[in-house]
Description:
Blueprint: E1 5-6, E2 16-21, H1 26-32, E3 40-46, E4 53-57, E5 60-64, H2 66-69, E6 72-76
Antiparallel strand pairs: 1-6, 2-3, 2-6, 3-4, 4-5
Amino acid sequence: MxxxxxxCDLPLNQTAVVVMLKGGKxxxxxxxxxxxxxxxxxxxxxxxxxxxxxxxxKHTLIALRQKxxxxxxxxxxxxx
Length: 80
């Protein structure tokens, strides 16, 4: 199944590969954090109320709010 998902819909501990970013000027800031097309990331844990979520990206943790992570489209690594 090669279906695209938004990063905010990815379950914890599911590794995925970034396919594309959509959403205007927030994409530049996301790229500056090292989240670019082709990179792998994994949601590691949620804040107590579910937002933000900490993602493992290139051996570091980056917290993203749901309103920002919905602009990142990924494909689960198991589906590749």
